[in-house]
Amino acid sequence: MTDHTPLPPFPADFHWGTSTSAYQIEGAAAEDGKGVSIWDTFVRRPGVIREGQTGDVACDHYHRYAEDIDLMAGLGANAYRFSIAWTRIQPDGSGPANAAGLAFYDRLVDALLEKGITPFPTLFHWDLPQALEDRDGWLARDTAYRFAEYAALVADRLADRVEHWITLNEPFIHLAYGYAFGVHAPGRTLMTDAIPVAHHQLLAHGLAVSALRSSGAARVLIANNCTPVWPASSAPEDRVAADAYDALHNRLFNDPILLGRYPDLSAYGAGPDLGGVVRDGDLKVISAPLDGLGVNYYNPTRIAAPGPEHGLPFQDVPIEGVPRSAFDWPVVPDGLRELLVGLAGRYGSALPPVYITENGTSVDDKAVDGRVADPERVAFLDGHIRALAQAMAAGVDVRGYLTWTLIDNFEWAEGFTQRFGLVHVDHRTQVRTPKDSYHWLRDRLAELRRG
Ligand code: GBH
């Protein structure tokens, strides 16, 4: 049953919209001078992507962006987070800008502004130029400097019209899935030896903050994936394991940025210099003041002490007694309130305004006679937006809610099999069909505007 109860009030200038990323929607993988990214390479490895699918065409958004912006406008959104493909701007990750690549994002930004939609570009959503991966990717300090140069090229072109900038998307997930476990590009399986990837991404972020500001960017954010960590029991060993997990997933990325220091990672065998890669002055660069913290929230994580066979100081265990998404992720709306109140408590006045830069769920929904029923997503959005309102009522300064995602897209290792969109996409025909959740959110946003 669809819930039609009005939402609690939100500030009139609150940013409402959707979030996407370049490789997951654009397609046009080799068009207009675009270079090869690690995802273009990774998807061609046998067996790594469900059904052998790729993002070569994805949602063909590169050619259909006007139609997709019409969908945003129809939703009543006033904000849109997308990512810029580094390889469209610098095909090999360094050197002068590729004019056709910049021109695409220029057109996109103008089309958004024409509809009154505030752009929130993300400069890196996991699609590193393959040429940089060939020089050791984020294990190499040099990649951080290359990133700052790329950031400046983009901002020099767009900062006259783009106010909000996001440096990196989820550096933790890129480190863990890409470099530690190898289930995402670049497919490396370094386990705890991947920890320097954290430092080089954070350094890239810090260097980019200053490059972006020099190029006229007004507000700079980062989008971190954050999870409330629940010890599996009150046993001391479970609490110790949960603390170690929190240090890795949350504090490794929030503490250096907001507090200027790394958390204790000795449980992972890493000293304060994270394996010899932290140099004098780096933390000062990394902790450059920010205008917002982007928070991507999906679900809490329940952590127990590891069994004897485990190579890590924790193991995750299922959260019981809650609904689960088609992806089998637990659905815990109150986790968003808990997370935000926890961030405000930990960081206090060091916490800048928060933007929910991703939050959403996968539903196995189907288009039947032009209608897509996705009651699970309606319930998910309703619950999470109410939890967000509670966090704000408790004093957390939140400025926006950008749901993941606009259109069903290339869900990384899952290919097109997990659907997170408000809009259904038939990936054979590219036909877009707004789902019940799209109509639900449109109606709620219209009510909020009427006040
Ligand atoms: C985001 O990552 C990405 O930024 C985006 O590109 C992607 O499409 C979207 O989410 C959906 O996947 O094992 O049950 O505890 C999200 C990272 C990692 C969050 C796995 C939830 C664990 C679920 N996610 N995680 S569970």
Automatic annotation (TrEMBL):
UniProtKB keywords: Carbohydrate metabolism, Cellulose degradation, Glycosidase, Hydrolase, Polysaccharide degradation
Gene3D superfamilies, alphabetized: Glycosidases
Pfam families: Glyco_hydro_1
Reactions catalysed according to its record: Hydrolysis of terminal, non-reducing beta-D-glucosyl residues with release of beta-D-glucose
PANTHER family xref list: GLYCOSYL HYDROLASE (PTHR10353), LP05116P (PTHR10353:SF36)
Similarity comment: Belongs to the glycosyl hydrolase 1 family.
Name this polypeptide is given: Beta-glucosidase
Species this protein is from: Catenulispora subtropica
